[in-house]
Every structure is written in C-alpha cells, then in structure tokens.
Protein: Neuronal-specific septin-3 isoform X8
Organism: Equus przewalskii
Amino acid sequence: MSKGLPETRTDAAMSELVPEPRPKPAVPMKPVSINSNLLGYIGIDTIIEQMRKKTMKTGFDFNIMVVGQSGLGKSTLVNTLFKSQVSRKASSWNREEKIPKTVEIKAIGHVIEEGGVKMKLTVIDTPGFGDQINNENCWEPIEKYINEQYEKFLKEEVNIARKKRIPDTRVHCCLYFISPTGHSLRPLDLEFMKHLSKVVNIIPVIAKADTMTLEEKSEFKQRVRKELEVNGIEFYPQKEFDEDLEDKTENDKIRQESMPFAVVGSDKEYQVNGKRVLGRKTPWGIIEVENLNHCEFALLRDFVIRTHLQDLKEVTHNIHYETYRAKRLNDNGGLPPVLGKH
C-alpha cells in the first residue's frame, strides 16, 4: 500500500482483529530445600498417619482376575493367597455338568479385614477359557469384560453429579496360569497375553510347579521369559513404568529372575516339625507352599500383596484406564460418552 492513501475498511477491520500481546505467565521459582533450617517441629510428617486413618475408615478395592485352563489350581491358589475361601472351585460343579461352551466371567466379592484395614476383594474367574476344541479368539469375552469396567468407571466420572467415591470394578491384576509342560508356551498363551497385556496388568505364573524337577523348572522359566520377549509381550511390572532407579533395580530383579512365578497352591494344613503349614502331601513328603526351597508362592504373595498392590492399582488407573479414556473421548470428539452408547 502506497504512502498517503487512506486506510481501507478491510485494513481497519483486520487491524482490530490482531490480538494484543498477552503478558507472559510468571514462571514459578524452583522450591528451595529448607528442611535443615526449620526452627522447630511443624508436623508435616503426620500426613502419613492422617492418610492411614482415612484408608482405615474407607478401606480399598482390589480386583484380581484368574485366567487359565481348568485343572491348573487357579481357585486353590487364590484361596491360598488370601488365606480364605475367596474363590469357588470349578470342581464344585457336578461331574455331570459340562464344561461351559464359551468363556464365562464370574466375579465374586468379599470383604477381608486384617489389622483394622478393610479390603473389598473381587475375584474374577473365567471358566471355559482354553477348554474347547477350537479356542480361537476365546480371549475376546475377557477383553470385553475388562473394557466394560473401564467404561463403567468413565461414565461415573463424567456425570455432572459425581459420587464422592466411584465404585472401582476395574481389573487391577490378571494372574495368567501357564501349564507346566516344561516345553514352551502354547499359541493360545501367546495370543492371550499379546492382546490383553495392552489393557491389563498380566502376571504370568507356572501352575502346579511341583510336577517339574528344579532343573526343568529353571529351564522352563527361562524359555517362557525368552518367548515373551521375542513376541514383544510386556508383563507386569512393565519396564517403561519404572519411576526411578530404585524401582528399576527392584523390578529388573523380578523380571529377570522371578517371572514367571513357579507356584504350588494348597488350602490344606499339615504338621511339619511341630508347626502347622499349608502344603500338599505326596508319597515322598509334604510340599510346603510357603517354603521358598519348595516353590515360589511366597515370592508371588509378597509381590502382589506386600510390595506392589498399590502400584498395580496406580498403573491400572494412570496407564490402562487413561489409555481407554483418551481413546473413548477422542472417538467422541472430545465429549463425554453418552450413556448406553458404546
């Protein structure tokens, strides 16, 4: 535009549309550690006790799924884990009753209390899995169930009038039972874990490990780890979710040595050297479930309950559920999902 010419209407309109430069947001200063300079006791450390009291009052949810062929001792192992009859045995069916034609999902809820802490435990069983002549896609009903629980949680979360505490039915952990063949994983094992490891925390366990010698067990564990790695299957604890070096060191040991846990379950007690122990009686002696020289049950229990239970819940919420939530909102153009539509 040449000098001296009056500004056109369009130019004026355009100049009005140019936004004013916004002031830059203030960058927060890095916190300076002053703990060594405190002049007296404040009481910050009591937050842990406050949180403990609150948890004691409200309790918490933990939902564990067991998957594997019938006859691998899934119910017995879960009962042994929680030292109570929390899982009904499939063998309680009548002998005349047929194996389910399709995979069924059965969830049984219990409240377990120990030391004043309440845990609402839900055990999700999957009778019929891997028991058919044709097991093609038999993992689909299980994946559907897991996603349905995410959907339920999401719909509660996007409600205008939200519940103070959303009931959590999401699957926090899936124990996948591998048959103790001593050879290699079946195509069904690989297929299941390949699909489901993307949506749930899978912990592989070798069932009825007392059917193998120590050498066979060690070789089989190594072979299973190798097959999972070759097939790109990530089991829990996943490498990419290690939060710091301490986590990485601890989890690397579990991933490289313990996984998959070779376990024996039993809810029967026997007397050994004057002590009552859970075990399995054989013609050559008693296999003590909680004796590390006999099997790795104690390692699995400590891992699932005593060291990683909270992390299993957090990975479920922050990773698996978050992935599902982002996809659902994205599919819906960023809007919350409409009830009943999925």
